[in-house]
Amino acid sequence: MEGNHNRIQSLDAIRGFALLGILVVNVFSFHSPHFMYGGIEMFYHTTLDGTLLAVVDVIFQASFYPLFSLLFGIGIYIMYERLTEKVNDRAKTILVRRMVVLGLIGLVHGLFIWYGDILLSYSIVGLITLWLVHKPIKSLMKWAAWMLGSVTLFMTLINYVSRDFLSEYRDGEAIQQSFALYTGSYQDILQRNLADWLVMFNPFQVILVILTILPMFLVGVVFVKAGWVYNPTEYRHVIKKLVIISFIIFIFFKFGPYAIGNPAWLDFLKQGIGGSFSSVFYFLLLLLIFSENRLIFLQRMLAAVGKLSLTNYLMQSVIAFIFFYGVGLNFYGELSVIQLMTYVFVVYTIQVILSAWYLKKFRYGPFEWIYRTLTYGKIGRLKRRA
What we know:
The chain contains 17 helices and no strands. By secondary structure, the chain is mainly α. It has one domain. The longest helix has 30 residues, at 2-31. The radius of gyration is 21 Å and the shape is globular.
């Protein structure tokens, strides 16, 4: 029982760490439209801004959604194993319902709060993962490598051909409209948010997202099937080797492009390969550290956030909505990178404190409870017994 508890707390802690990385990256999308429409130099001007943006790009950008995807794949397969033991042939039916509920939550989040929602994409990829969970490890790794390799090669070639356009890309009209509407009324914000959501969820973009996220779901399934998640100390020698290998690949693909001026056409290669291997590095390194009962205080702190991952993810969007948009404090496009990182520190610290306090009184987060209730079709007990 104790080993099982430690394993679950380790996964929760890594999930909490992933939420910090997601907050770091997402704050830039809430603050300005440069991720979608270019013109980053319009918002961040100083040498310090440039340095911090490079640090975020190497350490955080495109690393934490893959990490969350890997954790999601682990969660799906663990649930699949447990449900198969309990209800046998109904396991996939319950998990399909779970993915549909997640998709509905993501749809509401994406349409009414923030166009950059990832939950709808995760629900789609989760459904595909359920179709593949029974396959052996070698087959899963071949699927993951083929998908990630082919889409990265294809997009890098496309970007290379379009390199002149990419290096000068700036959609001035979209940037102007973003400023006009995101700093306006709630109706203005919804109008612009819907337009950006439709850009994010056009068919081509959805296919790209599936081909880049699904491989990490499958890697998560492989880590469970290989026994590394259940018994990391037993496999620590092979895990340590993979930590070193993934770190080398991560640094080469994430940091390497800066040696040649960080051209825009290398972005997909940097994020697809570098981001995926950095997520594997983060996961395996933290799995080893936490499984050996090191950094216990940090583990417990992160685990509290991770146990409420759905609630904390959605609340990060709600807080940013109020902080950056016109219906709230209206800081859209107004802050430097160091100010944005201060915002991240404050918000995440509050989430750590509130998560630890909340879990003393309740078994699930409010959105986790809704998610669970709709999945199983019965109302579970929310409050802890005295």
